[in-house]
């Protein structure tokens, strides 16, 4: 099954740009959504790439976010000032995907969230 990969930056309430990515089955609507959370000092686009592609090829929509200061996100490298902020950033992003899930579709190799 073909997989479409998408990258985007979102801004958290503190004004920090966070890198996000997603893998979707190209030819069908996802069976379910899977949200990936990486470990300390890691990032989602490289270390979780194989997992994202495998799950999307199996029909799932997969989404990841680089925490502030991790991967392609802005911020002091690997510095987590308050763990609650990291959790809130993930929660906000994942809820935005869930809220848009009813209205998303793929077109011209881009994930479009309406």
From TrEMBL:
Residues 29-98 form the Serine aminopeptidase S33 domain. It comes from the Eukaryota. InterPro entries: AB_hydrolase_fold, Hydrolase_4, MAG_DAG_Lipase. Transmembrane segments: none annotated. It holds the Pfam family Hydrolase_4. This is Serine aminopeptidase S33 domain-containing protein. It comes from Aegilops tauschii subsp. strangulata. The lineage of its organism: Eukaryota, Viridiplantae, Streptophyta, Embryophyta, Tracheophyta.
């Amino acid at each position: 099954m073909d997989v479409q990969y998408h990258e985007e930056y979102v801004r958290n309430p503190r004004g920090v740009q966070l890198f996000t990515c997603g893998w979707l089955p190209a030819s069908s609507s996802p069976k379910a959504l899977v949200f990936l959370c990486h470990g300390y000092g890691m990032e989602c686009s490289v270390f979780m790439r194989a997992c994202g592609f495998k799950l999307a090829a199996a029909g799932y929509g997969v989404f990841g976010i680089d925490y502030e200061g991790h991967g392609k996100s802005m911020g002091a490298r690997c510095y987590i000032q308050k763990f609650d902020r990291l959790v809130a950033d993930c929660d906000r992003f994942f809820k935005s995907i869930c809220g848009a899930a009813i209205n998303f579709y793929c077109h011209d190799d881009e994930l479009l969230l309406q």
